[in-house]
Design goal:
single chain; 8 helices; mainly alpha; elongated
Length: about 230
């Protein structure tokens, strides 16, 4: 009996497969990115301390001399130490924000091309869920087609994931699928997300909530540290 004809995979199935691949790449991403991110975070902390100390000093001087808020603001903007600290903080935050996605792209590109152009037509994450990547007929991608698909996926990210969300609607094709005439397919019997796959998504949700809470606490502590340097602070 011939194998059943594959159909386009749904959004949550594709997301679960992608997140598994991302989890596989995470250790290498941390190994390569930790020295860069650690240095950037240290630079940001030092810059924030310098900004806080400069603001406290300017505020103390303004109060003592009876300066107006406008004069104090102009003094802050013209202070070379403040300018240097703000530039250092901006550079550090840019590194923290841009380094992880850039490193991910450098790792994910050969990962995706090697596996999706293979006989299995799927990365490990996709293979676990029974997905395959093919052209419009479902055949194995050539290397140029796979590279074009990976590059076009950047547009799906740049549209604030609207390109990915297109999978929610029939014919269940992402923006980069449409642009490169490719498909992510699954056998009809495996089109539903398995129970362990739903648990995997729930685990990610919990981790995201905890990470957001940690970030908010860290921001609160940083703000309190800056305020504690102001004149008259307890």
């Amino acid at each position: 009996m011939p194998p059943p004809e594959r159909i386009p995979a749904g959004f949550w199935l594709r997301y679960a497969a992608w997140s598994l691949d991302a989890a596989c790449l995470l250790p290498l991403l941390l190994l390569l990115g930790w020295p860069i991110l650690g240095a950037a975070v240290g630079q940001a902390e030092a810059a924030m301390r310098a900004v806080g100390a400069g603001m406290a000093q300017q505020l103390e001087g303004a109060v003592a001399s009876g300066q107006t808020p406008l004069a104090m603001t102009l003094g802050l903007l013209s202070d070379p130490r403040m300018t240097a600290a703000v530039a250092q903080l901006s550079s550090a935050l840019t590194t923290v924000l841009l380094a992880p996605p850039l490193l991910y792209v450098l790792l994910a590109c050969p990962w995706s091309l090697a596996f999706e152009c293979s006989r299995g037509q799927a990365t490990p994450g996709k293979r676990v869920f029974g997905l395959v990547v093919g052209d419009a007929q479902g055949d194995r991608l050539t290397l140029p087609r796979a590279l074009a698909r990976f590059a076009a996926a950047g547009l799906s990210w740049l549209t604030l994931n609207l390109g990915h969300a297109m999978v929610l609607l029939a014919p269940h094709l992402a923006l980069h699928d449409r642009l490169t005439q490719t498909r992510v397919l699954v056998e009809p019997a495996r089109r539903a997300l398995p129970r362990w796959g739903r648990a995997w998504l729930l685990l990610q949700l919990v981790a995201g909530v905890l990470a957001t809470a940690w970030l908010l606490v860290a921001m609160r502590d940083g703000m309190q540290s800056l305020l504690s340097q102001a004149p008259g602070a307890p």
